[in-house]
Specification:
It is a single chain. The protein has helices at about 40-45, 95, 140-145, 150-160, 175-190, 200-210, 225-230, 245-255, 275-280, 295-305, 325-330; strands at about 1-10, 10-15, 25-35, 60-70, 80-85, 85, 105-110, 115-120, 125-130, 135, 170-175, 195, 215, 235-240, 260-265, 285-290, 315-320, 340. By secondary structure, the chain is of the alpha/beta class. The protein folds into two domains: about 1-145 and about 315-340, Quinone Oxidoreductase, Chain A, domain 1, CATH 3.90.180.10; about 150-290, Rossmann fold (3-Layer(aba) Sandwich), CATH 3.40.50. The strands form four sheets. Strands 3, 4, 5, 9, 10, 17 and 18 form a seven-stranded mixed sheet that branches. Helix 6 (about 200-210) links the parallel strand 12 (about 195) and strand 13 (about 215). It is globular and about 60 Å long. The protein starts with a strand and ends with a strand.
């Protein structure tokens, strides 16, 4: 099969590799669509350094079951499925209390986090555990369905972790792919005023179209002052979905009493400062969100199948696997939203 193999930073190579065979409890999926996450882009370009070579990136797939291993009964060859990139054992203490994304024996197909990183989905086939595949609703396209993982991450961060409530005033800093899904989940959950902050006018135009009540470009105005012009009492929830440390610092500057904030986008090891006494008296609550879990995956599938979140509106570019280098060039452009690979 054809796969995009990362040999070293800035050295992504298309080559033929063997098609894996499923063992007991495993499923082989023919990849029909896989989104490009910013963490993929950062790994390929050396911005994210926790990478072991060689590696096949890509962790947002949907496709068709090509083969199943022994003891797999809930899916069969020909089923259209969505793949959760993080595998879990189901029996360690974390899994037993529902925190499968903390699993002591976890692995990832093409992503990051666990020590065990397996070949991902910038390839024609991906091999994974049977407990990581979900039935794809028939009316969802593969391009939309492959966005279940980032949509689930947005739901987990905003609803499960930060407990957004109907009517909350929400600021989303960074409206790339994941930030756009955070914005769409917040809108579906009944956000009052919904402010998108980004340095890309292209992204802000999309954010406004998808439900942002206000947009702010920090390259042209003082973002904190602009937020407080719109929300004189300050935001209820701030989601950092951008990645750069400057976005985290902006998030901290927006705090008022009782603000909840979610460190969502930054994945590099950079530092920011907090005033301990101020945090105490403000009762600001910091959350973070990494990865996903079965509950969030099921919630994301429901949001998409009910039409409350439509990934098709976020997808801006599609490329065949043979043009993955061009896709990575587009990832570096400010005029793009979600980029999809169709092997």
């Amino acid at each position: 099969m054809l796969a995009a193999v990362l040999k070293d930073f800035n050295n992504l190579v298309l080559e033929e590799v063997p098609v894996p065979e499923p063992g007991p409890g495993e499923v082989l999926v023919r990849v029909r669509a896989c989104g490009i996450c910013a963490t993929d882009y950062k790994a390929i370009n050396g911005i994210r350094r926790n990478v072991r070579f060689p590696m096949v990136p890509g962790h947002e797939p949907a496709g068709v079951v090509a083969a199943v291993g022994a003891h797999v009964t809930h899916v069969r060859e020909g089923d259209e499925v969505i793949v959760q990139p993080t595998g879990f054992c189901g029996v360690c203490p974390h899994c037993r209390i529902g925190l499968t994304h903390y699993c002591e024996n976890s692995y990832t197909t093409g992503g990051d986090g666990p020590e065990d990183v397996r070949p991902g989905s910038f390839a024609e086939y991906v091999l994974t555990g049977a407990n990581t595949v979900y039935a794809k609703p028939a009316h969802l396209s593969f391009d939309a369905a492959c966005q279940t993982e980032p949509v689930s991450g947005a739901w987990k961060g905003i609803i499960q972790n930060s407990q957004m409530a109907v009517g909350d005033d929400v600021v989303v800093i960074g409206t790339g792919g994941i930030g756009m899904y955070c914005l769409m989940v917040a809108k579906a959950a009944g956000a009052g005023r919904l402010i998108a902050v980004d340095v890309s006018d292209y992204a802000l135009e999309t954010a406004r179209r998808l439900g942002a009540t206000h947009v702010i470009n920090p390259a042209r105005e003082d973002a904190r002052a602009a937020v407080y012009d719109i929300l004189p009492q300050g935001p209820d929830l701030v989601v950092e979905a951008a990645g750069p440390i400057e976005a985290v610092r902006l998030m901290v500057s927006l705090l008022r009493r009782g603000t909840r904030w979610n460190v969502f986008g930054i994945t590099t090891h950079e530092r920011f400062e907090l005033d301990g006494g101020l945090m105490h008296f403000l009762e600001a609550r910091m959350d973070a969100s990494f990865g996903t879990n079965p509950t969030a995956m099921e919630k994301a599938i429901r949001l998409m199948s009910r039409g409350l979140v439509d990934p098709e509106q976020v997808i801006s570019h599609r490329f065949p696997l043979t043009e993955i280098q061009q896709a990575m060039e587009v990832m570096g452009s400010p005029e793009r939203n979600k980029v999809i690979i169709n092997p």
